[in-house]
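Hey team,

Filing this mostly as a record. A colleague (T.K.) asked me to run one chain through the structure pipeline before their review meeting, and I want the input and output archived in the tracker in case anyone asks later how it was produced. No errors, nothing strange. Just documentation.

Input sequence:
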Amino acid sequence: MLKDIYAKYYYEGNYNCAETMIRAANEYYDLGLHDRDMIALGGFGAGIQTGNTCGAVLAAVSVLSMKYIEAKAHESKDIKPVTTMLMREFKKKYGSVLCRDIKPQSFSPEFRCKNTIEASCDILEQVIEEYEAQKGG
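Output structure:
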């Protein structure tokens, strides 16, 4: 499970939520991203550093992009429906996809955003499994 490997990035590597998600997913789903590629998501942590869209959500969308886009998003029949599923599940869990709304529900000083990252791992895996089952793949 994706949730089983995130801790080495979050705690041992001291990465933020977005960096943790993309690094764990890169390993788990064998996305083929290089270290420099994953650095691009660093600014997404803490809700794009402003409490806006949760970095873990944005990283999960990035994982979906890597899995379902060959060259261009508008040429992919998969990216919109699978991303819509992901956003729906986050909103179902937290009522929002905004860091400033999610953080009061799951942040603790001791564990930081651990609960959000674990939920993001679960949601991402669930969405991919359900989407693949719908596709027949």
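Quick notes for T.K.: The mean pLDDT is 95. The longest helix spans residues 114-135.
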